[in-house]
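Escalation from tier 1.

The customer reports that the assembly of two entities below gives different structure tokens on two consecutive runs. Tier 1 could not reproduce it. I'm attaching the input and our single run for tier 2 to review.
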Amino acid sequence: MGSAREPSWLLWDTVLPMLTLSAYIYVYKMMNAPREFTGFVIVGGAMIAFWLNVLWDMAAQLYWEKETGNLEPFLMAPISRMAMLMGMAIGGVFNTTLRALGIFIVGALVFHVEFLIGDPAAAALVFVLALASLYSLGMVFASVFLMYGREAWHTSHLLQEPIYFLSGFYFPVKFLPFWLQVAASAIPVTFGLDAIRQILILGAGLREVSLHVVALAAFSLVLLFMARWMLRYMEDHGRKEGRLTLRWQ
Amino acid sequence: MRALDDVSISIRKGELFGLLGPNGAGKTTLIKILCTLLLPSSGSAYVRGHDVIKEANHVRKIINMVTGGETPGYGILTVAENLWFFSQLYGIRGDVAKQRVKDLLETVGLSDESTTRMNRLSSGMKQRLNVARGFINDPEVLFLDEPTLGLDVLSAKHIRGYVRNWVNTQPEKTVLLTTHYMAEADELCDRVGIIHEGRIVACDKPSSLKTMVRDKSVFQFEIAGSSDYERLKAVKGVVGLSWTHHIESDMSTLKVVLSEQAAASEIESTLRASGSKILSITTPEPTLEDVFIHLVGKGLE
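Tier 1 run:
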């Protein structure tokens, strides 16, 4: 509803990210990198929209609700905290999918990206699992923000760029040194991004990305349970320390 | 620091109970514990027999809270959409919620603004919307934390009237109201608890509380200009005092509670001796503020 009433996001969230993506694409072109690298960057750019949504909207949602006075009515209501976060996640996925699609379509048209989608079902499965793991991670962050607010805000700042780098938003992670690849494998979006690129740009099928699928499913499950536990713990802890109602901390 | 210290109160079903105290007395802390937003470091609290620590979810089903000066909701949503949104946190059926939103907006005088975005409302209108939100789940127990804060006189009166009527017409409903407006507590509440530095120092019907100062003398001095009148506490017979400086008229109202009437003339001579120009001296009817001054030695302001 917010997006429909304030359509300026179309410019900020679709056209502006294209500037960064264009810079990478032109650098690759200048270096005579393989043609598929343009596709990699566009897919990475679309997925960045989800990462930013998770990091700044999903994770910080409860923090903002606290600062604007909404958190108290939320926490006083007899609703499941997980259901509340799920609702926020679904809203975030819907809005961000529109943004990501915008980036994807504009990028693909402007830079003439060639897609070799051999297995659309595998692409859909990987996309859903990638979002499930990413938004589960967002729920874990949300519980941290619930308790720590400003400190969590700094942590998010700290995470933004390293994750861009390690997850390979602008290049395939196989070019990273081994130990960095190991570190990158601790981030769910790395698997999602790599699998989606393989399916959409390189024409891979479910068999080639089966390891990615297993990893993403495992991430989703573990992070979802972790979010549930953390949320309960942080809420209890926050009630004890009076932090749930403490603003501008 | 202890926000609440050895507080023990019991509020009856169907009662409109007021908690009167100055800022920082512990009123909001008590309400937040009862609303399951805070855990007490020790002791226990129950709402309709449900433990707020162990049965928080049971408590949440039957309560709601309105905090003065707050504007929960989303600026981009309309007034009606915001109320509908909050109704859904309680799982209220769509048609019931729609009707309730309509009725509540009529009650708080916001029917004409139902399609206005919340960010375009005035502060007073936002507060009225906030009050409507508190009634959206038709709670059994309603907590009102300074609900008329920031409202103009007429709007505040309207809200008070609605709350009083809500309890009168539905005897199963209970309201706990915190305020630092004495008139509000006096006019609205069946019983009032006076809270000071985390302790309940008195609790009774407003009329019964006022009998505490029946044998005391209350004098009100209108004085030109302002000064620190704290030194008058040293006068023999002074139980407590409070004063307010009215900036617009540059006048001060000094209220003193005396254990013996004779002390008034000593206060008068002390004031004159210090150069204060006394404009009038009256002996007003005892108020809850006098009770507060009597109990803690200073006023609510």
